[in-house]
Amino acid sequence: MGGCIWVMLLLVLVMGAFTAEEDTALCEMLGSTEFPLLSEKGDITIGGAFSIHSQISKPSLSLTDTPQPLKCSRINLREFRFAQTMIFAIEEINNSSSLLPNISVGYKLFDSCGSTLPSTRAVMSLINGQERTLGKTCSGQSSVHVIIGASESSSTIVMLQISGIFQIPVISHFATCACLSNRKEYPSFFRTIPSDYYQSRALAKLVKHFGWTWVGAVRSDNDYGDNGMATFIEAASQEGICVEFSEAISRTDSPEQVARVVRVIRGGSARVLVAFLAQGEMDILLEEALKQNLTALQWVGSESWITAGHLATKRYSGILSGSLGFTITKTKITGLREFLLQVNPSQDPQSNLLREFWEATFGCSFQSSLHAQSQCSGSERLQDINNPFTDVSELRISNNVYKAVYAVAHALHNMLKCGQSGDAVNQSCSWKDHLEPKQVVKHLQDVNFTLQSGERVYFDGNGDPAATYELVNWQRSQAGDTVFVAVGSYDASLPNGKQFTMNGINITWAAESLKRPLSVCSDSCLPGFRQAAIKGKPICCFSCIACAAGEISNSSNSAECSRCPLEDWSNQDRSQCVPKVIEFLSYGETMGVLLSAFSLFGVGLTLAVSCVFFRFRHTPLVKASNSELSFLLLFSLTLCFLCSLTFIGRPSEWSCMLRHTAFGITFALCMSCILAKTIVVVRAFKARRPANTVPQCSALLQRTSVLSCTLLQVLVCVLWLTFAPPFPHKNTAHATERIILECNLGSPVGFWAVLGYVGLLAVLCFVLAFLARKLPDNFNEAKFITFSMLIFCAVWITFIPAYVSSPGKFTVAVEIFAILASSFGLFFCIFAPKCYILLLTPERNTKKHMMGRN
């Protein structure tokens, strides 16, 4: 309500400056005249608006009474130093023979009180001047050519909304709101402090650098705080940082509201607080924080307060110790301290501001009063005082004021074409009584100069300077004082990733601890785990879930688990991919050793039986068994036992081709021998002749039949190896956690053709032997062949489903078992009875007994 009344009043004042009643002869100002706190006349006048007082008392407002003047109190010594720095720079320029020669620069300083209402009155007074009447046209020039100020973004915006109508340039030394970079809305605004657009992002990178993903936030309830915090939250979100709470306070808030904000901060779980506050809000927040004993909190501050000397006192050391924040680079201004120490009420006895400053500094009063501790004499020495006014060790914002004044001087120097006459002796300026504000703005945009300190001053297209910051840390000196130590830097002009750097200096953390505080919503997920969002909570609050088998996370707080390559698998901790275990039937494992032993045992038996048969080769039993085929059968069985060894060991290209072809050919040879033997037995005992006249199958026919049957299998194998040979293959589909190194058949048709041919020979042998199983002889070999073929067929019939369903190396083991089982079956059924007679019952090894009838 009060703000609306003031705006209406100001609009009346503005309109009154431009319009007049038809019957009025003069353009007359309405309302009371505002006088500057400090002023000096000159050809060019620079206006200044500083928050010299930090407290304002709002008068009661009504619709019927004229509002009472605003009253500002509680002098801000730091802001008063800013104002004196402006005067110092102007006097330097006036004493310079190279900058604005023969042109005097004056000034008018007003108090904005850190609030929008006094700022509005200040800018109106700067524009209007003190003249009550102007004439008939109200077309007079503004009383100032440039305005420097204000110290707050909201106050600066209010000033721009009025001065912008007249295109009067405003240069701020402390207004950092990113909204002021809008050239369409504020075409005549410049500043010597970087925009919060960069500071907010720098703060987000700072928080990210130290691993704080869970922070609280408090801001000023104005344009500075709202825009700065909005930018920070956006940048923090991009960095994966969550804001637990975001509170706003104003210096005009009630104590209850400020206490509520502090309670929210205390109740939060975040141990890091980002404070985007102007000094006025910071003061009242710290007062309440002291009352509620708010300690052990890591403060991250904005430029506004992070280097404020009056906050770095022992009163607040328990709260703000270890604070971190970005600030502009500090510098030294030669002669400023000496100038400040000369400030005295005697310079302008009529100045209430100088007297108030003196009284606040020395705790005295110029008026005789019973309540005053002492009476001021004016001869007190500022050299003996150490306060924010006399402290020039952290000249940062003061330097911005200094640069702003020199920027104006250089712009006007170029605008007035000073020193361009060609006369090196008589440097002068082309003075104009009326300076167009548009031209001043244009020349301000083009300034580019270097100060005596070596610092370059220029403005970009938005009226902003280069965004470079120092990261300062509040540390305790050996004397026990709080000092601001530069521990890093931020340069927005550098490529992303190189903007923020640390200089290696040790940092003091909250509560003067040397250990960095931890501020996270959830504990970090270790490698091998991934973050899982918790429903209804920010992304920084999560639970840790172990990665699935075959997936890893090799860093902390991984959002996702990454799948291992096809030939790799996750280790037990799920933290890295390791090569999968390659599985094959090797000689080194128990199963391989047993199968190899049985294979060699079979080879040993066949060799032993061969020796026995050779020893008794002239006996009737061996002769009746067709010794040539028996020896060939023993040889083929030896090969059958040996071929099983090719299935053991690491598969290679040659072993894959050898194992199946050797198996097929040796078993084909074995079945061919048994088939030939069966045919001989059937023909011999089916003949109806005396025993001594039975015709025997010729040896040539037997050899031919064995050779032809075996060569047919060889032909099948050759075709198989020619068109689609077996090859080693890494099977990753059957088992995800390991690689099964196996022999791919190449052509399944070839494999089943080889196996089928062996089966066909076995069936023929079985059928023929079955037909001759009941022949009436004492030694019926057909009966034993029948048994052997029955075992052989049973083994290979059961082999097929077992082979298809067995996983990994067990497939090979099943195949070896089938080979060994069928080989042992043939061996024992055919040769065990004969060896029994040859070795244990030699009396039965006679021709008479062989041909006898049962």
Q: Specify the CATH architecture of the largest domain.
A: Up-down Bundle
- The CATH superfamily of the largest domain appears as Rhodopsin 7-helix transmembrane proteins
Report how far the terminal alpha carbons are from each other. 134 Å
Average pLDDT value? 85
Strand order of the largest sheet: 10-9-11-12-13-16-17-18
The total of beta strands comes to 27
Rg of Cα set:
52 Å
Low-confidence sequence ranges: 1-25, 689-695
What's a concise summary of this model?
This protein has 854 residues and is an alpha/beta fold.
Q: Could you explain how this protein is built, in words?
A:
The structure is a single chain. The chain is of the alpha/beta class. It folds into 4 domains: 223 residues, Rossmann fold, CATH 3.40.50; 178 residues, Response regulator (Rossmann fold, 3-Layer(aba) Sandwich), CATH 3.40.50.2300; 53 residues, Ribbon (Tumor Necrosis Factor Receptor, subunit A, domain 2); 251 residues, Rhodopsin 7-helix transmembrane proteins (Rhopdopsin 7-helix transmembrane proteins), CATH 1.20.1070.10. The protein contains 23 helices and 27 strands. Strands 10-9-11-12-13-16-17-18 form an 8-stranded mixed sheet, with helices on both faces. A hairpin with a 6-residue loop joins strand 26 and strand 27. Helix 13 crosses helix 14. The longest helix has 34 residues. The N terminus is likely disordered.
